[in-house]
Amino acid sequence: MKTRFNTYDIVCVIAELQHLVGMRVNNIYDIDSKTYLIRLQRSEEKQVLLIGSGDRFHKTSFEWPKNIAPSGFSMKMRKHLKNKRLESITQLGTDRIVNFQFGSGEAAYHIILELFDKGNLLLTDFEHTILYVLRPHTEGDKFRFATKEKYPHNRARESGVISKEKLSEILASAKVGDQLKKVLVSNLEYGPAIIEHVLLKRNFPNSTKIGKNLNQNEDIDRILEALNEAEDIFQNIKPEQIKGYIIQKKEERPTSDANSTTVFYSNQEFHPMLFQQHLEMTHKEYPTFNEAIDEFFSSLESQKLELKAVQQEKDAMKKLENVRKDHDQRLVALEQIQTVDKQKAELITRNQELVDKAILAVQTLLANQISWEDITDMVKEASLKGDPVACCIKQLKLEINHISLQLTDPYAESNESDVENNDNLPSMIIDLDLALSAFANARKYYDQKRSAAKKQQKTIESQSKALKSAEKKTKQTLKEMQTITNINKARKTYWFEKFFWFISSENYLVIGGRDQQQNELIVKRYMKPTDAYVHADIHGASSIVIKNPTGNPIPPKTLNEAGTMAICYSVAWEAKVVTNAYWVWGEQVSKTAPTGEYLSTGSFMIRGKKNFLPQSHLILGLGFLFRLEDSSVDRHKDERKILTANEEDAAILAEIDMGKDDVEVEILDESDEDELAAQSENADNKEVENADNNEESTDSDEENNKFPDTQIKIQHFSGTKNIITESSEIANEENNEDHVFYLGDNKPVVIKSNQKNRSRGNSESSVKQQKNNEKAEIKNDLKQQQVKRGQKGKLKKIKEKYKDQDEEERKLRMDILQSSGTGKEKDTKKGKKKKDGSSEKGSKKPPVKTIKNFTPKEISEDNIDDEDLTIQTDIDMIDALTGIPVSEDELLFAVPVVAPYNTLSNYKFKVKLTPGTAKRGKAAKTAVAMFLKERAIIQREKDLLKAVRDEQVARNIPGKVKLSAPKLQNLKK
Fold first, then answer.
1. What ranges do the domains of the chain cover?
2. Which pick of 50, 547, 657, 933 has the fewest CB atoms within 10 Å?
3. 125-153 pLDDT, tens per residue?
4. How many CB atoms lie within 10 A of CB 33?
5. CA separation for the pair 105, 107 (Å, rounded)
6. What is the spatial distance between Cα 961 and Cα 876, in angstroms, rounded to a whole number?
7. Shortest CA distance to 57 belongs to which of 22, 19, 16, 87?
8. Under CATH, domain 7-155 is a member of which superfamily?
9. pLDDT band at 254, cuts 50/70/90?
10. DSSP 139-185
11. For the chain, first and last CA: distance in Å?
12. pTM score, two decimals?
C-alpha cells in the first residue's frame, strides 16, 4: 500500500496549491506528533493545509481530530506564523523537500518539509536559521539539524535531462540479474510509478533484468526514449489538467452464509494520472489530485479496520475448512488402519508355522540368559547362513518384548486365481509380541481392525453434528466481527479519556493527571476559577480537577469522591496507607511561589485555606458506561442528580458540609419555637457588641466564614424517617450561622455553630465590615500593582499593542473575554448599593452574607476558542453516558471507567478494586470475562464489551489490584 508522496506527486500537489499563495494563517493545530493543520483565510475564503512529516502535504476538507493541547511545535508556529501571508510553495531542486514561505523580507519564516527517509519538519527564519526542528539529527559530518543551525539548501539533489552516456554508466554499474526498473528508480528522481509507466509503453515488463533478457547495446535507445518521455511528463504539468486516481484492490469478504461472499474494495495507491500498469485495475477518478489524496488518507483508518475484520473473517472460514478436512482425513486414516491390520492378521495366519518358530527361537535364547547383544549377533550369523527363520527376523525389540518379522504370502505364486483377483497380500514387516502365539498375535490385529471400524462409524455419525457446530460458531464469529467493526467505527474518543477520569454521582466530570506534564496541562488549560482543585495530602499525587461549568457550589458527595480518587492515584495505593485529601477553588491554585519564583512542571502553590476532606478507604471500582443514542438520553435524564434537602433524610444531612466541624443539630418541639426566635435576637445583639469592640475579630471571622471548620452532629429524630426542608431565607446564609430546617411533621431543627464570634450582625456591623473589606481590597490592589520580576518587558509589549485602544473598546473586549477584573468591580459596586440601601431603610432584618458563588458570564461565540467549545460540548455529552442501560435503550459503544466504588454502586457492570497482587492487565480481562457471564446481560451489551480493547480497560487501573465481586471465585475455578 502506498502511504507517502513520490517526486511526481510533490510536483503535482505544488502546482495545485498555488492558489493558496496570498492567504493568511488563521491558526495552526496538530493532529499527532507528525501531522499539522494550517488554517488559511482570505476574506471569506477559508482553506486548511495539512502537512505530514515524511509522508504528505495537501489541502483537506475532512474534519481531523485535533490534539487536546497544542504541541510545542504548534505553539512555536503559532507564535511566528499567525497572521502571516503564505508567499510561496516551492520544491528544493528535484528532491522530496518542500519549502513553504510565510511573510517577506526580514519578517519571512519558512516551513521546510522533508518527505524521504524518516521525514522531518523544520521552522526557520528569513536567513534559514533553524528555530525549531521536529527530529533533531546529524547526517554524517556534513549536516547537523538542530536549533540555531543553518538549514543546508545545497543538500537537495538537482537533475536535468539524462544523456546516453550517463544512462550507459548507470546500466554498467548495475549487477547482472538486477531488475531494470529498480536500477532506474534508485538513480533517477522520477519515481517508480512513472518509470514503470514509460517502460511498459516501450515493452519493458517488470521482469526485465539486466544481463539476462536485456541487451544494453540494442535496448539502450528505447530506454532513453522512455526516460525522455518521463521528463516531458514532469515538465508539462498543467494544474487544470491534473486529475486524481485511487487504485483499489478487490477483497472477497465471507458472510454469515458460508456459501456466499461480499466484495470489499480497499484503497491501495493514489496517483495524479492513470498509468499504463493501472489501466486494467479497479480505480476511482476524482476531479483533482488533492481530493483523491484527502479521500485516501481520511479513509485510511476505517480501511484498516475493514481489512482487519476481513482477515479475521477469513481466519474463521479457514478454521471451518480445517474442521472439514480434519474429519475427512480422520475417516481416510481409519479406513487405512483397518486395511493394514487386516492384512497383517492374514499374513500372520498364513505364516503361522514360521511365526511360531521365530518366537520360540528368541524365547529359548532369552531363557538361556544370553545377553541381548549376543542374541542380535547370533540372529545375524544365522541369517547369513540362510536360516529361513533368521532371515525373516528384521529387528529385535527386546526392550518391549517384541520382534519384527518380514512376512509374505506363501500362496501368492502358486494360486494364480488369487493373483488375477488381486487377493494376494503384499510383503510387510509386522511387529509380534513374544508373549503371544501366532494366532494370538493375529487376533490382536483383528481386534484393532474392529476397533478402527467402530471409530469410523462413530466419526461418520458425529461428523454432521461437528460440522454444524463449527458452521454455527463461524457464522457467529462473522456476525460478531461485523458488529465490532461497526462499533469501532462509531466509537468516539472523548477528550478527557487521555486523563484519569470519572463522572461523579451528581454528574460532575472529574479528571486527573497521569504524570507531571498532564497535571500541568489540566491546571493550565482545563481548570477554570469555578472548578475545584483536589489533591491528596501527600507528595507526588495526581492533580484532580472537578469541572464545574455552572459555577454553583460543588456538592460534598462529589468532593468526597474526588478526594478518594486523589488518594488512590498516589503512592498511598502501593503503600496501602490511608491519608487525607483537600480541595480549593481553581483561583487559589498558582504557578508562582511567594518568592516570585516559577515552580517546576506539575508543581503548584495553593493560596488561602485548604478544605480538608475526611479520610477515604483505598477502594475503587471498574465499570462500564454505555453511549446512548440521542433518542434514549431522556430516559436517563435524572440518573445522576444532586439530591436536595427535600430528598435527603437525616442520615444524608449529616454529610452536607463534610469539611466543617463544631455544629450541633437539635430537634425542637412546637413550644420551643418562640424561644428559638428570642435566642436568635440575643445572638444578633452580641455580634453587634463584638463588632464594635474588636475590629480585628471581624476580619478573622470573615476568613473563617469562607472556609469554616464545622462538624455536623445529629442528636435525635422523632418518629420514623423524616424529610427535611430547608427554609428559603436560611439557604443564603453563611454556613457558620444558625441554620433552621423543618421536618416532615413541621418540627424545626437548628444547626448551631460553636464558634464564639458570629458574622451575622445589624446594619452597623455590616457597614464596618464593608470598610474592612475595602481596606483589604486596597491592600491586594497595591500588591498586584508591584511589577514582578520578568514582567516589565511583557507590560511594555502590552502597552504598545493596545496603545490605540480607548476605554469603551477595552471594556467591550473585556466583557467578551469574560474579564474577571471587570466582573468583580461591577459585583462590588452592586453589593455596596444593596448593603447601603438596606441600612438606610433601617430594615430590622440583618443583611445576609452569601457563600462565594460563581456564575458564568455571557460568552461571545465569535471570540471563544474552538477547543473550548469542544470541551464544553463534551461536558454536556456526559449526559449521554449511562451505567444503567435498559433493554429499550439503543446503545452505540461502551466506555470503561475506573472510579470510587460508591460512585459505581448503581452500575450494571462493576467490580471492586483494592490494593493487591494481581497485574492490572489480567485483572481487566478477568473483570470483562465476569461481565460477559452475567445472567442479565443482553446480546448488544456483549457485543459492545467485546469491542473494547484490553489495554483500554486496564489503562486507568492504578497498579496491582485485588478484584472483589459476587461469584468471582466460581469464575476463576
1. 7-155, 243-298, 351-451, 497-634+881-972, 644-781+847-860
2. 933
3. 999 999 999 999 988 777 889 999 999 98
4. 12
5. 5
6. 32
7. 16
8. ibrinogen binding protein from staphylococcus aureus domain (2.30.310.10)
9. low
10. ETTTEEESTTSBP-GGGS----PPPHHHHHHHHHHSPTT-BHHHHHH
11. 47
12. 0.49
